[in-house]
Design a protein that fits this description.
The chain has helices at about 1-25, 55-65, 85-90, 110-120, 140-150, 170-175, 175-185, 185-190, 210-215, 230-240, 260-270, 280-305, 310-330, 335-340, 340-360; strands spanning about 40-50, 70-75, 95-100, 125-130, 135, 155-165, 205-210, 245-255, 365-370, 370-375. With about 375 residues, the chain is of the alpha/beta class. It folds into 2 domains: about 1-25 and about 275-365, no CATH class; about 25-165 and about 180-260, Spore Coat Polysaccharide Biosynthesis Protein SpsA, Chain A. Strands 3-2-1-4-7-6-8-5 form an 8-stranded mixed sheet, with helices on both faces. A two-stranded antiparallel sheet has the order 9-10.
């Protein structure tokens, strides 16, 4: 029986490891922009609600960008802190920066999606770069993102910035963004297909062609969603518009959360639009428990029993389970402590997914930025404009 479990663990741990290894060569950083006669014109759009700790450095990083013509629009979304005052002060020293105030949030909208849609309608340039307020772009980051957009031919491109982590829960859970993305999404098939199921991105950083964005309805098409990293690319793909992904590790940096509570609530708020969706959570749980947690348990039991054949098979499964986290720690400059504690990270990740689903099933709203949100049906996250 133990040998059977070890074999099952090996069979379940190998596909994500192989996918991750294969995807690493496809998930590449954008090249440096080629010499252009005229720099690209980009509207950088930052929605901000109670971001007084983050907004100043985010603005300064954007304004230090090279090889682009830009305007920077910040939408103060009814902040109760000093966000608007900080932006207003900085705007007095650089005409490229403009502060706007968000309209009242309409019923049926997520705050971020409404803020992004409002910003897009104010933008003047043909390329729209949506950034979260906690993202810091490198001086050449915007120009390189534009270059990837041109090279890929996609109308919407996105990448995961380098994720800074401080607390233990951050080190355990935040690196799973890359594990899930590269371990389970076939990037080459994604690029060869317009299927919405292959839609993926990172809500921290999106670059869109304005015309295509407006044509598909932009963030209005995903107005109820709390997870535009998934739903916005799917909206583009549902309209027959190509999307793509790149490695943004050296394009931008982000510190999403700064406490265990923020990590838990932040990841739980949109989980039912991802792996915690009712149709996804059971197969995802079986796959992750069997491939990422079971190898360690079987290896321990087999070693205690002196069953060295089973222990050998389990050790191979454990090596396969660990390999994506080790490759990610090296490739994306992630926490080595988080990588070593990978089975624990997966266990906590699954607890979080079930917690989010149970909250949704009993009608408990997710609260973010002091706003309660009751999820729509996860299967209906993309709506018509």
């Amino acid at each position: 029986m133990l040998l059977l479990l070890a074999t099952a663990a090996l069979l379940l741990s190998l596909p994500p490891a192989l996918h991750f290894w294969r995807n690493l060569s496809a998930y590449s950083p954008p090249r440096h922009s080629a010499g252009r006669e005229k720099p690209p014109a980009v509207s950088v759009l930052i929605p901000a609600r109670n971001e007084e700790q983050s907004i100043g450095p985010a603005i300064q990083a954007v304004l230090a960008s090279r090889d682009v013509e830009l305007e920077l629009l910040v939408l103060d979304d009814h902040s109760t802190d000093a966000t608007a005052a900080i932006v207003s002060r900085l705007a007095r020293h650089d005409a490229r920066l403009r502060l706007h105030t968000a309209p009242q949030l309409p019923r049926g909208w997520c705050g971020k999606q409404h803020a992004c849609w409002s910003l897009a309608k104010l933008a003047q340039h043909p390329l729209l770069l949506f950034l979260d307020a906690d993202v810091r772009v490198a001086p050449d980051g915007i120009a390189r993102t534009v270059q990837f957009h041109l090279d890929s031919g996609a109308k919407l491109v996105s990448g995961v910035p380098h994720q800074e982590t401080g607390t233990l829960l951050e080190k355990l859970l935040i690196p799973l963004i890359h594990f899930v993305l590269l371990g389970f999404l076939p990037l080459r098939r994604m690029r060869a297909s317009y299927a919405p199921a292959f839609g993926a991105g990172c809500g921290q950083l999106f670059l869109a062609e304005r015309d295509a964005y407006m044509q598909i309805g932009g963030h209005q098409a995903v107005r109820e969603s709390l997870h535009d990293g998934v739903t916005l690319p799917r909206a583009f793909r549902s309209a027959g518009v190509k999307t793509d992904l790149f490695d943004a590790t050296d394009v931008a940096t982000c510190r999403m959360y700064r406490s265990a509570a923020q990590v838990w609530n932040g990841l739980a708020k949109n989980a039912v639009e991802g792996l915690a969706a009712p149709t996804m959570i059971v197969p995802a749980t079986l796959l992750l428990v069997g491939g990422q947690i079971l190898p360690m348990l079987v290896l321990l039991f087999a070693s205690l029993l002196g069953d060295w054949l089973t222990a050998g098979v389990a050790a191979l499964a454990l090596a396969a389970a660990y390999s994506p986290r080790m490759m990610a720690a090296l490739h994306f400059r992630q926490s080595w402590l988080g990588a070593v504690l990978h089975p624990l990270a997966i266990a906590l990740f699954l607890v979080l997914q079930w917690y989010a689903l149970l909250r949704w099933l009993v009608g408990r709203p997710a609260t973010w930025k002091e706003r309660p949100y009751l999820h729509a049906n996860p299967s209906q996250s993309v709506t018509s404009p």
